[in-house]
Amino acid sequence: MVTTASTSRGLDLIWQALETVCDPEIPALTVIELGIIADAWIDNGRVTIQMCPTFSGCPALDIMQSQIKAAVQGAGFDDVTVAVVFDPPWTSDRITPEGLRKLKQFGLAPPVRCSGVVREDMLHNVACPFCDSKNTTLESIFGPTLCRAIHYCNNCLQSFEQFKPV
Amino acid sequence: MIYSKTIDLMDPVRLPVIDLLYRLADDGLIIGHRNSEWTGLGPAMEEDIAFSNMAQDKMGHALAMYNLLHEMGEPEPDVLVYQRREEEFRCCSLVVLECFDESARTADSPLSNNPTRDSLLAHGDWAIALVRQFFFSAGDEVRFAALAESTFAPLAALARKFRGEIKYHTMHDEAMLQRLGRGTTKSGQRIQTAVDALWPHALGMFEPTNHDKVLVQSGICPLESELCDAWRESVEPLLRKSGIDVPAKANPIYGGRSGKHSPELTALLDDLQKVARLDPGAKW
Fold first, then answer.
1. A141: which chain B residues are within 8 Å (Cβ-Cβ)?
2. Which of B50, B59, B167 sits opposite A57 (nearest CB)?
3. How far is the CA of A43 from the CAs of A7, A63, B132, in angstroms?
4. What's the whole-number mean pLDDT along residues B249-262?
């Protein structure tokens, strides 16, 4: 497929529109920073966006799909399809460096890089997002949403949540 | 031969793949439903949250596989979940097992009139829930490790995604098995009793089917007996490590993979499909 100047400009508009869509459960993060946009292209004026779900059972999937569609339509494209794909599989490694920084700012311990393979040591002595201490205890590998584990900081004496490496 | 897309699946491979997807999706739906029955009733808050999370994960796996089935020409997921009859389901007996005793289900029972949590727990055996979950997640791990290498690319992609999520299930289940197996005399006995009762059902996860040969030859899925062996190699050391005896030779309980189910599934579907049956067009 040849990328013409107008297609290239179109793609810019699409990526700009995607930057306005945020994760409904972690509003600090855009869908791009979360790494869920697998691909986007224009073919004869028809736009296709491919998104890969963070967790298979994520209940925000439908909302994000329709918000992405609305944002891209808002940028001036009538024919927009947002498809959910599992190839590539989403892993927490897809969160951008800016996304990791924003997670910590939001109060969520960011996930360590895992190359798609989770090991138990990745869940122990996680740095507290409030005081940076590693004197922390894993309380539960499950939390209020599929993406969060619960820890306790023995240093500043607060509970905190960790975005799970997966 | 690699089957990159669903349209690449022709006879004689197509129907065996559809059958496999129904088996795995139905397992996910039913164990998800069973685990969700513990929401609000978990013996400790962390376990309540764990079972709710694991239920949600498995529902997500089921939905992804029902969507793949729909891509292959089967009905929409909502139709498959809310309108299929009992004999059309392909889940194994392990996931169907009821944790709450019969009196919990009758109209006269306390369950129908806002009972206290203690009363509900008196009717539920959490040891069954935990051991069932442990056996199942160990099966899931073995199954999706194999399917990650499947020649059917869309299924391999799902398997690669599911594996990371399943890892959290096995971490949880192995830790709880050890804690309870080696906890008190009573907790060890309850776990042993549950293990002995569930073992034949667990073997039924790997019920052989008429489709196995085609699935193996096409590189789509390994032989059920091979998966069963791998499952035993995984669970037996974990049981011993938890102070639990591995059950002696047992006859596996089969039938689920060909639509033969116990009355427990009838009751489950009565529950799950209640609103859809009352109002087939309902949206919620």
1. 50, 168, 171-172
2. B59
3. 9, 25, 49
4. 96
